[in-house]
Amino acid sequence: MTTQTNSISAGRWTEREKLIFRFFFLFFILQALPLSIDFFKIVFGFNWLYISYGNIFDLTRLSAKFIPGSDSLLNWLIVAVISLTGTAFWSRSKYKDANYNELYYWLRVVVRYRLAIGIIGYGLIKFFPMQAPFPSISNLNTSYGDFTNWKLFSMSLGIVPGYETFLGSVEILAGLLLFFRKTATVGAIIILVFTGNVFISNLAYNGGEYIYALYLISFAVFVLWFDAIRIYNLIALERPTQPNVFKPYFNNNIKPIRKAVKGFIIFFFIFFYGFKTYSGSHRDPYQFPKTKGLVRAAGIYNVTEFKINNRVLPYNPADPVRWKDVVFEKWATISIRSNRPVLIDSLNDERIFTHDKERNYELAGSGGRHYYAYQLDTINHLLLLENKNFHYKGEQLTFKYSRPDTATIILKGVNEKRDSLYVVLNRIIKKYPLKMSRRKALKL
Known about the structure:
- By secondary structure, this protein is an alpha+beta fold.
- It has helices at about 15-30, 40-45, 55-60, 75-90, 100-125, 135-140, 150-160, 160-180, 185-205, 210-235, 255-285, and strands at about 300-310, 310, 325-330, 335-340, 370-375, 380-385, 395-405, 410-415, 420-425.
- It has an 8-stranded antiparallel beta barrel with strand order 1-3-4-5-6-7-8-9.
- Helix 1 packs across helix 4 (about 75-90), helix 5 (about 100-125) crosses helix 10 (about 210-235) and helix 9 packs across helix 10 (about 210-235).
């Protein structure tokens, strides 16, 4: 494989520029490579014969990570220290006088492809609006003040799926532009504007993706830097500006390989991932559980009677024991509102979980309700509830249910403290303005 300059001189590098380049070359290469403690778990943890959109998203989301948990700037510090050490050895090696124009070209290729894959990873789960789904029944019946800033922001996006699709299309377009050298700068500009807003939004609403957004921004800045001075001279200073001075040349043996690799990357991360995401959006959106709930039970229910240990508890909004209302979702989740305090699950970084018990979007960033996944035994009419919040791990309730009519559910069983409960639930007929179009009037 060879590259060479075109007829225009590629320019000379000063010793200071070479030193700075060595550091950034190592820094961005290390950031672009999947040097993550999660790499083997992701790559070898799923069936390659049946790849889901979640598996591909995890691949696009990989970044240099040496510390378990959420993204941290400490990982960046570790990469910077390694890069500084590598720069010192490089500066003393026989490769210190390498062809820096050629290295710069290939580094930019790696960075723009990594940036394209990363931005498309998020673009497709927005284009098929899954990242911020429409609020659940429980969410629609939770007080505004019981949500964290991040959850309010996410639900505000979820109620306008058309806008979410538009945002996803912008990210996909930017990623496509990055795959081609002549349009990469335009793609980088789009990402700086778009992902810059994502970064600020995460800071303002206490989101969990600001580190990764900054990661993508740093890559976009690097890609743009190649043409930044020329753009400034042309547009701001209105001066004559030369085009790029380095042009790659590939011999005839390399051209087919290059095209095949590029074609595979575009096929896999655009068409194949796009197909999988489209299919997943119809069959298994990842934010909410997929297990079906009790048939024809979805809705909000008022607690008209509540007995604990055969003692009737009258309605009292300050009572931490008596339930106020109960929501049955379409999937196997029940949420219970009471005056019992809720320790909020504040984990809000983007993850696509396969198993229902790990899918926490419906309760994350939300107080005022306790969320329970349940197992349904339709033969014996049993409900086994388990609190989904990791702060209440192991909390279980068991009920035998009956349905005397289509609007009533009666629960008999024990709570997490083994107290006997008898609860009568009556469905509340409720319309939600958010689900109605502009032309439909809400009748009270």
